[in-house]
Amino acid sequence: MNRTMIVGCIFCSCISFTAAVKAQQPLYKNAALPVEERVDDLLGRMTLEEKILQLNQYTLGRNTNENNLGEEIGQIPAEIGSLIYFGETPEVRNAMQKRAVEESRLGIPLIFGYDVIHGFRTVYPISLAQACSWNTSLVEDACAMAAMEARKSGVDWTFSPMIDVARDGRWGRISEGYGEDPYANAAFCVASVNGYQGDNLKSPDRVAACLKHYVGYGASEAGMDYVYTEISHQTLWDTYLPPYEAGIKAGAQTVMSSFNDISGTPGSSNHYTMTEILKNRWKHDGFVVSDWSAVPQLIAQGAAVDGKEAARLAFNAGLEMDMMGRCYDKHLEALVNEGKVPMERIDDAVRRILRVKFRLGLFEHPYTPAGEPAERFLLPQSVAVAERLAEESIVLLKNEGGILPLLHPGATSTRNIAVMGPLVDAEKELLGNWNGHGRAEDVYPIRKALQEEFAGRANLLFHTGCPFDGDDRTQFAGALEVARQADVLLLFMGERYSWSGENCVRSTIELPAIQCDFIAEMKKVGKPIVLVLANGRPLALGNVEPLCDAIVEMWQPGVPGGRPVAGVLSGRVNPSGKLSVTFPRTTGQIPIYYNRRKSARPASGKYQDIPSTPLYEFGHGLSYTRFDYGRLSLSKTSVAAGEKLVAQIPVTNAGQCDGAETVHWFVSDPVCRITRPNKELKHFEKQLVKAGETKTFSFEIDPMRDLSFVDADGRRFLEPGEYYIMVGGQKAKLEIHE
Ligand code: NOJ
After folding, report:
1. pTM given for the model
2. pLDDT tens column, 366-384
3. Which among 82, 256, 434 is the best mutation to test ligand 1's pocket, defined by most ligand atoms within 8 Å of the CB?
4. What phi and psi, each to the nearest 5 degrees, are found at residue 592?
């Protein structure tokens, strides 16, 4: 045999060897096959025990919360389905993944989840604030950046977005969602699902999304966390479900079941919501994970007698993965053997979880490549998105006599500005709750931002003046001294980040008494007061509003910290945020929201002691320029149900500076067999309008989508008759004919 022949033989035997290996390779390992085929093949090879382990989620790594440390690698079965990963770098994840992939019989990779709520390391404004930007593409960008940071750190799946419609500001979790309106929650839900997931889940910088908390958690009675909710099926369908339906349509891979008991059936054992609606009607083919220990908590809720019954109820109702409840791993096998849980249901549940793992490409790429943190965290483009989003989230609530901006373009005169309040030097507070791996040192301090913004243009006099709460008024006198020397007072007040979020409920949503007293004390010097607020919920400002000339809601902006608001105060940034949630005058007005059902006596039904109107309505937000709305027009005034039309309105920037305007389009149905809200948001659009320019805003109306309603079982219907399209204080009549 010559050399060429020898090489040829080796080559041929290599090919046949590879072919033989391929032939032996289980189908589920063949990336070229469709996901469903791979799932079927893998499922067929799994034992009951292996299947059940897939249905459980434990934790791994160090949590920032010292009470809540994850397990060590050695303690976790290699066949477990999922882990909540508290790490910031991929090493520990990869080590655990190695166990799953190399030490388990079938090598099924784990899926690692984490709460990436408004950022991973680059922290963006809280979601309630993001919604005030009315800029869905910016929210999508922020979620995409957060996904990149998370995936490259070892997280495949975020427990976000939270899309619980919330109308009670006492509830601390109102900060985590997009406010009081179903349509707004749906729109921002779609934006965030698109941002997290992109169009290819296998991409190394996208994660699977999880819609939570399914469903109705935002209706927690009296704003208390974890409690009962009273939600009729009608309200469930017309208010709480629409954001979820939108998220499922957008392709969200997973859903988290809620803690709350929905009028007698807890969210986590609710067959109607998890199976009938989510899977049978909406055809969701991903999986439902419980909230943390929500399965065993069915016992506390009085739905189950013990963990075994809890497992049976939750699992048969449609809940596939038990987060930290340790009920499925303990009891499902016995339940199957006793015939109380059908084997088909086990297969269906495992199939759903495997499907998501395949879609994420975890079988081909189980490990997260090592990389330098600096290559993924706080990248200039991520911080730039955070800063823009924070700027656009700021809502100018009041601006009496145009006191803001403090510096007019080109102004050189030096003014003395007193800067006081507990937030001036409180970087961590600006991160907001659920701040992932965010760090206080990443936050741009308010003090520094103001010093830079006003350098050479104003003289800043700093004094803390007042604590967040408590009774220590010792600094009031010093603050008064400073206030006397100033031309204007900037008071940075509000909430600590830990006052909102999970189980962080306040019984009143006024500013704490000491902050109110401080504002009143400062009022004594007779200088204009600009109140700047950072908080995680709507506040009731009825008592302090009369003392303030201007009020700026900066929310908890995340890492941009003081820069965006400094820009608004100076005039570098023209505020364009509008409220995603109503601000009442007092706590006593709760629940208060714009889209209430119609009253029997709209002109009556008043409070004796205060006006019954909110202090600041949903959608309220001022600008430094003036927008004049032209005449609202409809392309047709009478259409059949299947016919579309366009509503338009020209908006002119009649002021001196450029500005962005958001137009909110509402519909109203005066008479319906099911009574409807006074008005319902159905579309919004934000556009930059330059000074002197006119832009047309439009709303393409699809009657079946935009004017219809749902009944108590989710059947959508459109009645012929009269409707109104409402925008900027105008309304136009539209007839739907048979
Ligand atoms: C409990 C919270 O309710 C939920 O929002 C979160 O995703 C899980 N814990 C996991 O941290």
Report:
1. 0.96
2. 999 999 999 999 999 999 9
3. 256
4. -135, 130
